Please model this.
Amino acid sequence: MSDNQVQETTTQQRLHLVMGGRVKDPRSVEFQDPESIHVVGVFSSYEQAEDAWRSNAQRTVDDAEMKYVIVHIHKLLEPAV
Model:
C-alpha cells in the first residue's frame, strides 16, 4: 500500500468535566465558593458524564442552592471545532 492509498483517520477526543457546588442563585452557575467546588471527574463520553451528573444532582435534589454541571472541556480546548 503506498502513502497515497493510506487514509489518515483521527478521532477527536471529547472530554467532559462534571462538577458542582453551592450557587449564589439557583438560576445561575455562579458558585458561592469556587475553591470548594466538588470535582466529580473527567469523562471521555457525554453518556458517562451525564450518568455522573445525574447521580450527584439527584443526591442533592432537595437543596436548591446545590448545582452540578457538565462542562465540555473539548470545546474549551478547541473552540473552532
Remarks:
- The mean pLDDT is 87.
